[in-house]
Amino acid sequence: MRTLTRPATAGPVLAPDDAGYDAERRGYNLSVDQRPALIVGAAGVADVVASVRCATAHGLAVAVQATGHGPTVPADDDTLLITTSRMTGIEVDPVARTARVEAGVRSGALVAAAAEHGLAPLNGSAPDVGVVSYHLGGGVALMSRQFGYAVDHVRALEIVTADGHLRRVTAGADPTADTELFWALRGGGKGRFGVVVALEIALHPVSRLYGGGMHFAAERSAEVLHAYAEWTRTVPEEMGSSILLIRMPDLPFLPDELRGRYVSHVRFVFTGDAADGERWVAPFRALGPLTDTVRGMPYGEVGTIHAEPTAPVAFHARNSMLRTLDTGTVDTLLALAGPDAHAPFLVELRHLGGAAARPGAVPSALGRRDAGFCLYSGGAVTDDGVDALRAALARLHEAVAPWGTGGACLNFLAGPDVTEEQVRSAYSETDLDRLAEVKRRVDPDDTFRAVVAPMSAEGSR
C-alpha cells in the first residue's frame, strides 16, 4: 500500500480509515460509490492548489465533487477527491448584473442572492444542484427558451489546472487570455480540464414569474401529453415548460390525490405578463387537473415548481435529445412509460427551442443545439433491480430514436451507466477534435481522468 504525504490545507484531509471519510465522499447519487485514496474538503482556492500539486506528485488522478449529483466514474484508490461544498461565496454586482460564484454554491443559494436585487440567474429546476458543474455541462435553464443556455452567459472562470496554477480564463482580447480554454470549459463538461473554483456569470432582470404545476390523473395521460405536444408548437419564448410522467410513491406526506398514483405533472415558467400566462395555461386548466399551483410568484420561489427530492438515492438514468414531439413520439412514450406500462422509471420532457436553438454571443463547446426537447428517464432501485431498470431504459430510448437528434444532454448524463459514446454524441466531430487539443495542452498527463470523457490527453479517439 502506497504512503501518501497529505497536503497542508485549511480544510480536512481524510483517508479511508479516518472518521468523517464516509460522510465526505458521499453525494446525492449513491449509484456511484466514491472510495478515493484521499479526500480534501477544500476550504478555499489555496486548498485546491495544494491538493492538485499533491496528486500530481504522487501520480494520482484528481476528481471533483460539489454536491454529488453528476458523478460518472467512482473515485478509487488511485484518485484524490476534492470536495468543494465548503466554498460557498457569492458576490452579486447589481449594477453590472453579474455574480461571482464559488465552486460549492448550490443553485438555490444563488437564486436567493440574486433575487435580493431583482435579478435572476439561468438556473435549472433543482435548488440543490451545484452552480459550477451545472454551467460546465451547459446549463439547461428554466428560462433557456428566452435567454439560451446558462453557459452562454458565463463571463469568466477561475480554474486550477494540472500544473497546480490558478488561472482566470475569459474571452478577452488580452494576449494572455486563453480563449480556447474559455471555449472548452463552457460546455466541455466538468472535471476534464482542471478544478473550476469560481465562475462569473451574467444575471437577468427577472423578479417575478407566472408559474407552477398541474397534476393530472392517469386516465388523462394521453389527452394531456398530446395536448402538451400541440401546445408547445405555439408558445412564445417567454414560456418554459416540462411534463413529468411518474408513479408517485405511497408516502404519508403526499396529498391523498397523488399518493401512490400514476400522474402526469405539467410545469410552467412564464416571464411575461401574468394575465398572458394565465391565458397560455388555460387549456390545461380546462382538462381538470388534480392539483393546480400555477400563480404569480417572486422568482426566488422558482425552486418550488418542480419540487425535486433532495435525499441521497442510488439513481440510474438515460436521456435523449429529440428533434420534435409529434403524435408518434407521444404514442411511443405512452406505450412504454404510460400508466399501463408499469415502467420502473419516471420520464420527463423539457421543451427547448427558442434561444436555446441559437448560438451564444460567444461560441462555446456546447455546439449541438438541434433539439426541440430533452427526454430524461430514470429510476431509483435496489441492486437486484438494476439490470431490469437498465434494460427498460434502453428499450425506451431505442424506441424514440427515430425522433432523436442522435445526441445527449450533458447536464443529465450522470451515474455509472454513462458511456463514452453517449458523451461524444453531445458534440460535433470538429468540436471533439478541438476539445482533445485543449486537453492535450492543459492536462498532458491526464490528471483529470476520473470522468467519462469524449476525449483524453492522447486524442479524441
Topology, element by element:
Elements: E1 13-14, H1 21-25, E2 38-41, H2 45-58, E3 61-65, E4 79-83, E5 90-93, E6 98-102, H3 107-115, H4 131-136, H5 144-147, E7 154-160, E8 166-170, H6 179-185, E9 195-202, E10 208-217, H7 221-231, E11 239-247, E12 262-270, H8 274-285, E13 291-292, E14 295-298, E15 315-322, H9 327-337, E16 346-351, E17 373-380, H10 386-399, H11 420-424, H12 429-442
Parallel strand pairs: 2-4, 3-4
Antiparallel strand pairs: 1-2, 5-6, 6-9, 7-8, 7-9, 10-12, 10-13, 10-14, 11-12, 11-16, 15-17, 16-17
Helix pairs in contact: 7-9
Folded structure, characterized:
Helix 7 (about 220-230) packs antiparallel against helix 9. Strands 10, 11, 12, 13, 14, 15, 16 and 17 form an eight-stranded antiparallel beta sheet that branches. This protein has a five-stranded antiparallel beta sheet with strand order 5-6-9-7-8. The chain is globular and about 65 Å long. Residues about 455-460 have low confidence and may be disordered. The protein folds into three domains: about 15-85, Uridine Diphospho-n-acetylenolpyruvylglucosamine Reductase, domain 2 (2-Layer Sandwich), CATH 3.30.43; about 90-205 and about 430-440, Uridine Diphospho-n-acetylenolpyruvylglucosamine Reductase, domain 3; about 210-425, 3-Layer(aba) Sandwich (Vanillyl-alcohol Oxidase, Chain A, domain 3), CATH 3.40.462. It is α+β, with helices and mostly antiparallel strands. It has helices spanning about 20-25, 45-60, 105-115, 130-135, 145, 180-185, 220-230, 275-285, 325-335, 385-400, 420-425, 430-440, and strands at about 15, 40, 60-65, 80-85, 90-95, 100, 155-160, 165-170, 195-200, 210-215, 240-245, 260-270, 290, 295-300, 315-320, 345-350, 375-380.
